[in-house]
Amino acid sequence: MAAPEMFNLDGRVAVVTGGNGGIGRGIALGLAEAGAAVAVLARNQDKNEAVLGELRALNSASIALKLDVTDRDALAPAMSEVERKLGPVDILVNNAGIALPGGVLKVDAATWDRVIETNLNSGFLLSQIAARSMAPRKRGKIINIASEYSRFGNPIAPSYAASKGGLIQLTKSMAVELAAHNIQVNAIVPGWIESEMTAPIKGRPFYDDIIKRTPAGRFGTPKECAGAAVFLASHASDFVTGATIFVDGGYAIR
Ligand code: NDP
Q1: By alpha-carbon position, which residue is closest to atom 45 of ligand 1?
Q2: Structure confidence by residue, pLDDT tens digits, 34-91
Q3: How many Å apart are CA 31 and CA 25, to the nearest integer?
C-alpha cells in the first residue's frame, strides 16, 4: 500500500466523544481531513454546531449529536442514530473527559463517581456497543484518550488518575479480546495540550514548571494529537494493538 493510501479513511465512519472542543475537535478534524465521516457526540449544542460547520467545510459527511456520556440509557440510541445516518461505525474515539479536584481526604463520592463515569465507564460502555457492531464485520479501531496520570499519581485529582489508569488497562484487555475480530484497540497519552481543561493553569507557576519539564519546551496543540489518531484509525496501524502512543513533547521520558 502506498504511504498516503495506508492512512486514507475514505468511506470510514468515526465517532468522537467530546469532539466539539479541545483535543476531540482536533482529532475529529484530522479524521475528516483523512476522509472519514465523523459523528461528534457531546453536550454543548452551540459547540457541536460550530465544529459541524468546520467538518462540513472539509466535505466530510458529518453529524453532531447532543449526548451526555454519563447518561447510560442514551448511549445505545446515540450509536444507533450514527449508524442510521452515516453507516456502521469503523472508528470509535473515547475522548470525552473531565478533571475535578478533590484529594482523597476531601473528595465526595458523587464527584468521584462523575469522573469515573465520564472518563472510564462511558469508554467501556461505548466500546462494548461499537465492538458488537464491528465484530461481525471483522474490522474496527477503538482509540482511548488517556493521560500522563494514567501512570503518575495525582494528589489533587485521584479520581482523574484512577479513571485514566483504568482506561489503559481497559485498552489492553479489549485489545487482547477483540484481536480475533480484527479490532485494534489503542490509547493516546496527550502530554500537556492547550485546551479549556488546561486553560486555568496558564499564568501559574505550575504552567512554567510544565514547560521546563517538557523537552519540547512548550504545550502541544489539539491539532498535534490528530496525527496519532489518524494513524491508529487507519490501515497503517493494523498490526498495532494494546499500545499507548505518547504525544507529549517528551514529557513522559524526563
Ligand atoms: P476540553 O475540556 O477542552 O474538552 C472536553 C470535551 O469532553 C468537550 O468536548 C466536552 O464537551 C466533552 N465532555 C465532557 N463531559 C462530557 C459528557 N458528560 N458527555 C459528553 N461529552 C463530554 O478538554 P481536552 O480537550 O483537554 O480533553 C479531552 C480529553 O483529553 C479528555 O479525556 C482529557 O482527560 C484528555 N487529556 C487532556 C490533556 C490536556 O492537556 N488537555 C492531557 C491528557 C489527557 P461538552 O462539554 O459539550 O459535553
Answers
A1: 43
A2: 999 999 999 999 999 999 999 999 999 999 999 999 999 999 999 999 999 999 999 9
A3: 10
Exposed e or buried b for every residue in 100-138, given b needs 16+ CB within 10 A? eebeeeebeeebbeebbbbbbbbbbbbbebbbebbeeee
Q: Are strands 63-66 and 183-190 parallel, antiparallel or unpaired?
A: unpaired
Best substitution site from 95, 113, 154 to test ligand 1's pocket, by max atoms within 8 Å of Cβ? Answer: 95
To the nearest 10 degrees (0 to 180), the angle between helices 158-178 and 122-134 is 20
Q: Is 160 a catalytic residue?
A: yes
CA-48 nearest atom, ligand 1: 47
From CA 9, how far away is CA 14, in angstroms rounded?
9
1 pLDDT higher than 90: no
pLDDT tens-digit series, residues 93-102: 999 999 999 9
Ligand 1 mean position to 18 CA, how many Å?
Answer: 6
Pocket of ligand 1, beta carbon within 6 A: 17-18, 20-24, 42-44, 47, 67-70, 95-98, 118, 145, 147, 190, 192-193, 195-198
pTM of the model: 0.98
CA dihedral 77, 127, 184, 86 (to 10 degrees): 10
Give CA–CA dist 217/246, Å, rounded: 16
